[in-house]
Amino acid sequence: MTLLSERAEAARQFLEGEWGKxxxxxxxxxxxxxxxxxxxxxxxxCGTELDGWEALRxxxxxxxxxxxxxxxxxxxxxxxxxxxxxxxxxxxxxxARVDASLPLDAxxxxxxxxxxxxxxxxxxxxxxRRLAEGLNDLAAALPGAHVLSSYEASARYLLGxxxxxxxxxxxxxxxxxxxxAAFRGPGAWVLAAVPAEPQGVLLIENPQxxxxxxxxxxxxxxxxxxxxxxxxxxxxxxxxxxxxxxIGEIDPLQTLDGLLALENVTxxxxxxxxxxxxxxxxxxxxxxxxxxxxYAPMIERLEREGGHPLHRLTGKGGQRPAPGxxxxxxxxxxxxxxxxxxxxxxxxxxxxxxxxxxxxDSDLDAMPGGxx
Length: 372
Fold this sequence. Notes:
By secondary structure, the chain is α/β, with parallel strands linked by helices. The chain has 3 domains: 6-94, Orthogonal Bundle (Arc Repressor Mutant, subunit A), CATH 1.10.10; 98-182; 189-365, 3-Layer(aba) Sandwich (Rossmann fold), CATH 3.40.50. The chain is 41% helix and 10% strand. The protein has 16 helices and 11 strands. It has a 6-stranded mixed β-sheet with strand order 7-4-6-5-8-9.
């Protein structure tokens, strides 16, 4: 089977779902490429028009889609598009897997079939029915149920599990009229160590390196900030800094808003594609943010020794590599002396531009997959 990019895989699931809705009603579904690409320009699908055309081209080359003329992002012709005959036959047979007794409409059934191939694999019919009924009950309780967190809503409506709502595919949940983002968010707490007169701010990716920076004495001159608890990421905290509460060694009058207004704000995380994607996302909230000079010895070590592969054994199994960049070095590789000497300075602009340039442009449109 051809390995598809994330955008092509998202487009494939969308097209199969649309085809399935019509198939279950005894209809045949085709598209025209231009309006189809416009529909694919959603953050949860392809994000940009260019990515939509590229996804369509990729699906065509993989033999999953047939077009009346070749498609390309350069010409962007309005051609006829349909699923390949082989894929249509496979889908028609697989739709029988969705039991007719489940309380699903045609669109929900199409997405349910995808879930049976992935997250719902192995679920018996009784649990599938309870889950579908729970999703319908939760949808009927909206908007009042939005006062709950997604964890609470999930546990109260979905088989007593606090994890199910977030674990189910986003498009499947949306098919029931449920938007996970509409539920009450978790408390926004950020771990902080702030001197009386901070000379700048260092955003740190993980608590272990936060502790190291404190141990190395950096908190005596810089405000150190790190995400803390409930899967909160710094990128989420920085979108609404006025709602964030700082905990740790800090003056109670200090606020995240006030600290981010300082001139010298830098970021220190892992040296891998996802670490720099996090930086680019953070910079959308803090325009003056720079990579920390702590990246300099990390870059030198990665180039000298090769670092580690982006593999499940190194905790990077789900990370997307960048073109020509598939290895990393974790921030814990630095010693205390290096942290004390370089924290507070920014990486040279030329070096920063080089490493950020290794990321695909499409990374700017997508939030990093993991919490900081």
